[in-house]
Write a structure and sequence with these properties.
This protein is α/β, with parallel strands linked by helices and 458 residues long. It is 32% helix and 22% strand. The structure holds zinc ion. The site of zinc ion has 6 residues, from loops.
Length: 458
């Protein structure tokens, strides 16, 4: 029998409305009990969690693991190692790989490899359209039978509304949520950063917020028309949040997610660290202390899709997270090789890594900034994504898989991209002082990462 007792932590389990000091007993990979003075088997291993938060293993439902075909950027072993360091026990990988995950065979390949090489649970999504080309539907029923938890063309967006309508009808039939990367190609054209003051100053091609909002509105209408659950990925614009808020009030089966970079940074960051810290980053600069992290203008680690918005967009996303309009937090972890990013801003690929910084940044911007309670924040990383994707995860109920995250909400540390477990180092938060850090990540009762093992390894 393998048993572990986590003692003295503040246990926060939003799925069970539990938030109290307690012990968590794990036996043979399952949660056995949560409570005080638990009777435990003799010789059981103890983990001292005093002063820490103990919660259901965190889920990141938007991660690019780059398998198959792009393993110079990341693979299942390195991507899941980064997830474990970040406190994530489950990740959901996107299908925009090479080839795309658009057949049952590719789904089976990823699931097999993930079981062998991954250190955390990997759930797979399938493409909405064949080769993510937006022209012809993938075999959605076959993908479902092969085990996908959702369909998405992430990285791309189905432009043909009739095709999207059919995708929604099939998804509804097979009880699959549709996750959508909201980008209207005719409005965005070849934009590389948010269209506003800074794009003009920097002479970069602009990407108007309407390029996202139009598709969010389309998705609301299609969710209403078909009854399919549509989930809008990585929301970045104030208008998108307003649309979502209004639609949810009417009971439309629509939802949204936000990523830490969109509610921490703004488009001013593309003009360099000086411009950012002196204006939109003022509030954050105080916590950084004397030596502020520096980066040049046109730094491609600040290029992502959708792009960073204005301070008003950032505030709207924070408000949407605070009032429950946006129910899910995720990273959109998008690793790229140095040589791909070390080019002119126009030519660099979109995307940044995020698994190892997202919990800290979310704690800082939402809990430490007093916008959300611990329970509300943790729900956005556990119960809420589990509900959307019908995963039997995200809870510490007796009998559940013993996926547990332990974190110190007050630990201050400096993130160094070079120390990352990811194969890629393309993070805009390199050198940032962060508050809140994972202490241990437990998957199926097994500690897959802990601060202690890290110290020993060093
Ligand atoms: Zn995307």
């Amino acid at each position: 029998m393998a048993a572990l007792l986590l003692t003295g932590g503040q246990v926060v389990d939003p799925a069970n409305h539990f938030d109290s000091p307690a012990d968590v007993l794990i036996i043979d990979g399952k949660i056995s009990a949560v409570g005080k003075n638990l009777s435990t088997p003799k010789g059981i291993e103890h983990f001292d969690a005093r002063g820490k938060i103990v919660c259901p293993g965190l889920i990141d439902l938007h991660v690019h693991l780059r398998e198959p075909g792009q393993t110079a950027k990341e693979n299942l072993a390195t991507g899941t190692a980064a997830a474990a360091r970040g406190g994530f026990t489950s990740v959901v990988c996107m299908p925009n790989t090479s080839p795309a995950i658009d057949t049952a065979g590719t789904v089976a390949l990823i699931r097999e490899r993930a079981a062998r090489e991954g250190v955390v649970n990997v759930f797979v999504t399938g493409a909405i359209t064949k080769n993510i080309a937006g022209e012809e539907l993938s075999p959605i029923g076959g993908l479902k039978r092969a085990g996908v938890v959702a369909i998405t063309d992430d990285g791309h967006c189905v432009q043909n509304h009739e095709l999207m309508r059919h995708a929604c009808q099939y998804a509804k039939m097979f009880d699959l949520p549709v996750m959508d990367h909201c980008q209207d190609y005719s409005l965005v054209t070849d934009g590389v950063m948010h269209e506003d003051y800074w794009s003009t100053v920097l002479g970069l091609r602009g990407w108007p917020s309407a390029g996202e909002e139009v598709i969010v509105a389309r998705n609301i209408l299609l969710a209403e028309l078909t009854g399919a659950k549509i989930h809008c990925q990585h929301l970045s614009a104030a208008g998108s949040v307003a649309l979502l808020r209004e639609a949810k009030k009417r009971g439309v089966p629509i939802s949204g997610e936000a990523c830490p970079h969109h509610f921490t940074l703004t488009d001013a960051a593309v003009a360099g660290s000086g411009k950012f810290w002196n204006a939109d980053g003022k509030g954050l600069a105080k916590f950084q202390g004397g030596e502020l992290p520096e980066w040049p203008k046109y730094d491609t680690n600040f290029k992502m899709n959708p792009p960073l918005g204005t301070a008003r967009d950032r505030e709207a996303i924070l408000e949407g997270l605070a009032d429950g309009t946006i129910e899910i937090l995720c990273s959109d972890h998008a690793p790229h090789c140095d040589y791909e990013k070390e080019v002119e801003f126009d030519y660099a690929p979109f995307g940044i890594t995020g698994l190892e910084t997202e919990l800290s940044l979310s704690l800082m911007q939402l809990v430490h900034a007093k916008r959300l309670s611990f329970a509300e924040l943790i729900a956005k990383f556990t119960a809420n994504p589990a509900r959307l994707l019908n995963l039997k995860k995200g809870t510490l109920s007796a009998g559940a898989d013993a996926d547990v995250t332990v974190f110190d909400p007050d630990a201050e540390w400096i993130f160094r991209a070079e120390d990352s477990a990811s194969k890629s180092k393309n993070s805009p938060f390199n050198g940032w002082k962060l508050k809140g850090r994972t202490v241990a990540t437990i998957v199926g009762g097994k500690t897959v990462w802990s601060e202690k093992s890290e110290l020993v390894a060093a």
